[in-house]
Amino acid sequence: MELEGRWQDLDKLLARDGNLVGPGFEPGPELREFLQTDCRVLCIGAGGLGCEILKDLALSGFVNVDVIDMDTIDVSNLNRQFLFRMSDVGKPKAVVAAERVNARVAGARVTPHYCRIEDLPPSFYSEFTIIILGLDSLEARRWMNSMACSLLEYEDDGSPDMSTIKPLVDGGTEGFKGHARVIIPGVTPCFECTLWLFPPQTKFPLCTLAETPRSAAHCIEYAHLILWSQQRAGEEFDADCEEHMKWVFERATERARQYGIPGVTYQLTQGVVKNIIPAIASTNAIISAACVLEALKAVTMCSSGLNNYLMYTGSQGIYTHTVAYEKDESCPVCSAGVLLQAPADATLQQVIDLMLAHPTLGRLMAHPSVSHGATPLYMRGVLEDGTRANLGRPMAELLRGEGVEAAALLTVNDKKLSAPLRVRLRRRRRRRRRAAELDGRAGCRGAHACMCMRAPRFV
Amino acid sequence: MSSPGDDSRSKRYDRQIRIWGAEGQSRLEAARVLLLNCGPTGSETLKNLVLGGIAAFTVVDAARVSARDLGNNFFVAPESLGEPRAKVVTALLKEMNECVAGSYVETPPEALVEADPGFVDRFDLVVATQMTEPHLLHLESLCRSKGVKLLAVRSYGLAGYMRASMPEHTVIESKPDTQVDDLRLTRPWPALREFAASFNIEALDDGAHKHVPYVVLIQQALESWRRERGGAPPSTAAERAEFKRRLAGMRRVGPEGVPMEEENVDEALKAAFHAWTQPSIPPEVRRVLEDERASPAAADAHTPGDDFWLLAAALRAFVANEGGGCLPLEGSIPDMHATTDLYLRLQRVYRAEAEAHAAAVEAHAARMLAAAGRPGGGVAAGAARHFCRNARNLRVVRYRTLAEEVAPESARGEALAEALGEEGTAANASLYVLLRAADRFHSTHGSFPGVLEGEVEADMAALKGLAQQVVAEVGASGAAAADDYACEMCRLGAAELHVVAAVMGGMAAQEAIKLITRQFVPFGGTLIYNAITSTTSVLDL
Ligand SMILES: [Zn+2]
After folding, report:
1. Active site residues of A
2. From CA A297, how far away is CA A21, in angstroms rounded?
3. Residue A364 lies in a domain
4. Number of structural domains, chain B?
5. A311 and A321 Cβ atoms separated by less than 8 Å
6. Which N-terminal stretch is annotated as signal sequence (chain B) (predicted)?
7. What is the pLDDT of residue A338?
8. Residue B356: domain span
9. In the predicted model, what is the mean pLDDT of residues B276-303?
């Protein structure tokens, strides 16, 4: 039995009409009923953002919430992950977080999944009305993004089929700063459309570390990247192992002493080695609440929604900025299909090579499998023997029935992808394309070639 | 050595100590905070501060846990229905962090302030949530008279309001996100000139050549440029382009005429602007230096532990004398391609000059104290150096009183009219006016507009009238609050939505942390959060 008046604040928003509401808003008690019954929300992450998101969802009328997190609780989480206590250290975050929210908020049904996002099938993800991301890794964001986008289907006229849209709301913080964004696949830009928003992490050149260290961080990275593999060869470095971290710290201290460089501390060693992002409760609270508010708007239309990116900065006064980023019409993940041009006489192998050389497709795949509709053309794994012969055959022959100029829709999969990509192949009678100048990564320049050639994994 | 207790503390707070350092953390761990009203806005604010590890808090609230609390506040539990809200919230907040002391008073904040004005004395900061204008005015005058900082926070439907009140807040470590390096190449001092001149760049072998720090490359190029051009640095676009060509010309060419990869030359080209960009004093710092408190009279008012204005006065004297119009050198240099030895030597050249500047500033401060007849009360050890290292980051934020903001004779009507008229701020300025109108509505009706079903339309007409009154009273002639927002205000009927409260509680905690740690820059003015458009505006009224 729901207590009379419990949801009086929320009900004003959901049951009363207004002038600044979303398209098709239909106020009434059905909206809260929907939140409490059919609506299912997935929260990715039960960390700094996740704890807040779960609380905000439960107190915004959402009932059926699932949460995925593969991590266990650490002491350093306690300054912001308010659902956890000292006695919880070592336990799975998702399980404890779900337990706490269910215990505190009557009616809440948070279901934990103590696993990796990759462990769950597409059929699991397709069950949710909306997905909220509280992550700190770009790779996990890209994986979830491609999963949500793969559930999107397009109509024949190239417009997205609205019933297949799986909205994503994403939050992120660093110190006093953060962002919240809404991704409606096929309508607003996805992660892949705006990948440039995440600048690549800067790495120190190896020759600086080896030959001319100038800062405490250089000494630490020398111990971590070079000395470790020399002196403890065969042993995998584990940043969560205190003995390993202390070893790096001691070697870094020794090197700094030799060179007369000040400033190596254990705290800095951890920060450099683990690439620790500073985090505080208040910023997580702001960003998570902004995300849940947008989720509430997206599923009920109770107020006009964020279009489509909010940036928050609290270090110098309080400053927010909203930007409507633009979709990349040729995005390999959310568009109706990336256009790939190939010569009319190209073989399947040549088409695969073109994919790998393509500036956006190439970075998403390493060993692609290709099919056309339900027909496998070339498949990795058990079907490889049966399809390998196709590699040398011309596409024209493999795609019988489609004219030379027609764009054939290929489905491409790869171990690196969470879900298949759509590639629209257009074959043209043209001179052979130049070999693509493909060097997307800004690696070391010539000056470092020596060191980097020897240890390519650090580039 | 540190005790095990310190160790677990430093682990627990590791992710925030990386932001505000041990110094900021110890200030936080000494802070006592008073919270007035513990609905979701207040509870969420305090939650973020308790997690951060403040010393103690006290909650003042008269309500009992109701069904409504169970729908919008995480710090009440179903089994506590009917119990004093202050007690329940205090217990659930304390449970999160055993290092924090918490207590509560079960009484209406307005009544407590009236009955025991000395109560606020025990706190460093008062966070007043969900209080209407008349009560805030009273509380503000009390806090001002007691020298306690006040932060007023409010969540109202899809709007949020926040305002701080105290005479002034000074900051040494404002920690701006980005800052141009201060290399002083336009005004080299003898030791830097000597260091740069000690390189015979032409004679170096290729390996040594590509490890000459770019500061030396630019400095040498600039010296020879000056010799040729009668002392002036490159100034026109053509001259600058020519100067860059000279820098590019320093790159070695390999045996087959191929230019060599030399990162120090690449860096020099990127940093070429240092050859003609004079060190400048940021406008915020100029305001500090020109402030009337930054005068030798600051020595009279100097109290140990608060050196800001005395050091500002000393800094001003430095700029006018030794500094030749410039701030002291910070003394740090960015990483650059160089051998370890050359880099560390260059670093020492900069650091020694910075030390000399800091000593000069300290001497000015000592002179001022002596002149004021207080020769013994010097500044704290290292304070001058810390101040000089942050010379470009100094900030002072002054707050008008809320009383000045609302009184017709001192209200900034023009600023409000402008905010209401401008596209970027119109909606949020409307929310500001409507919030004040809603408080007037509350004063006469005893409830907020739109609270009662069936009265929404009638309330809206009344609210619009009151909004017009607010606008006219402060002299914002010709302006008006947007009708759509008046409609939204009545639709939401003073609802305290959890998500809006969580956003406001987060922002309020950030502000409290900035005020307590004396790092970063708190906002001045009135902040309006608009949850409909996901925007904020800071109005200077
Ligand atoms: Zn996309």
Report:
1. 207
2. 9
3. yes
4. 4
5. yes
6. none
7. 81
8. 283-398
9. 92
Which residue pairs, CB below 8 angstroms and at least 24 apart, start in B79-83? Answer: B81/A3
Q: Which residues contact B184 (CB under 8 A, 6 or more apart)?
A: B192, B279, B326, B329
* Closest residue in A to B523 (Cα–Cα): A317
Q: Is the CB of residue A59 less than 8 Å away from at least one CB of chain B? A: yes
Domain closes at, from B228, B249, B275: B275
Instruction: Annotate B462-480 with b (16+ C-beta within 10 A) or e (fewer).
Output: bbbebbeebbeebebeebb
Per-residue confidence (pLDDT) for residue B377, from 0 to 100? 64
User: Which residues place a Cβ less than 5 A from the ion ligand 1?
Assistant: A 190, 192-193, 331, 333-334
pLDDT at res. A439: 31
| A78 touches B: beta carbon within 8 Å | yes
Q: Which of B12, B70, B73 sits opposite A75 (nearest CB)?
A: B12
Domain that holds residue A212: 206-274
Confidence of residue A458 (pLDDT cuts 50, 70, 90): very low
| Nearest residue to B396 via CA among B529, B249, B540, B290 | B290
Which residues of B fall within a CB distance of 8 Å from A5? 66-68, 71
DSSP state of A343: E
Same domain, B92 and B167: yes
Å between A280 CA and nearest CA of chain B? 6
CA of B334 to the centre of ligand 1 (A): 37
Percent residues over pLDDT 70 in chain B: 99
Residue A406 confidence (pLDDT): 54
B315 shares its domain with B350: yes
B362/B382 same-domain check? yes
Q: Tell whether A261 and A294 lie within a shared domain.
A: no
Report if residue B179 sits inside a domain. Answer: no
Taking residues A248-264, what's their average pLDDT? 97
Output the pLDDT for position B199: 97
Q: Which residues pair with B57 in a beta bridge?
A: B33, B102
Q: Is residue A31 part of a domain?
A: yes
Task: Establish if A55 touches chain B: CB-CB under 8 angstroms.
Answer: yes
Are residues B144 and B9 both part of a single domain?
Answer: yes
* Residue A323 contacts B, CB cutoff 8 Å: no
With cut-offs at 50, 70 and 90, classify the pLDDT of residue A453: very low
Size of interface A-B (CB pairs under 8 A): 247
Q: Are residues A135 and A258 in the same domain?
A: no
Structural domain contains residue B152: yes
- Residue B483 shares a structural domain with residue B508: no
CA distance B59 to B38: 7
- Ligand 1 centroid from CA A194, angstroms: 7
Q: Indicate the residue among B233, B256, B275 that finishes a domain.
A: B275
Interchain CB distance below 8 Å, A293 and B500: yes
The answer, yes or no, to whether residue A353 has pLDDT greater than 60, is yes
Taking the centre of ligand 1 as the mean of its atom positions, its distance from the CA of residue A154, in whole angstroms, is: 14
Q: Is residue A420 part of a domain?
A: yes
Does the structure show a pLDDT above 60 at B430?
Answer: yes
**Once rounded to an integer, what is the mean pLDDT over residues A167-179?**
97
Tokens of A130: 């909306």
Pick the closest to residue B496 from B5, B57, B71 (CA basis). Answer: B71
Same-domain pairing of A14 and A155: yes
Whether residue A14 is found in the same domain as residue A138: yes
Whole-number pLDDT of residue A434: 35
> pLDDT band at B5, cuts 50/70/90?
low
| Mean local confidence (pLDDT), A384-409 | 76
Cα–Cα distance measured from residue A305 to residue A308, given in angstroms and rounded to the nearest whole number: 8
Q: How far apart are CA A367 and CA B337, in angstroms?
A: 39
Shared domain check, A151 and A30: yes
User: Do B78 and A106 lie within an 8 Å CB cutoff?
Assistant: yes
Q: What number is the average pLDDT over the span B463-475?
A: 95
Q: Count the domains in chain A.
A: 3
Residue A232 belongs to a domain with what CATH number?
1.10.10.520
**pLDDT for residue A134 is more than 80:** yes
Q: Is the per-residue pLDDT at A369 higher than 80?
A: yes
Q: Does residue B363 belong to any structural domain of this protein?
A: yes
Same domain, B309 and B329: yes
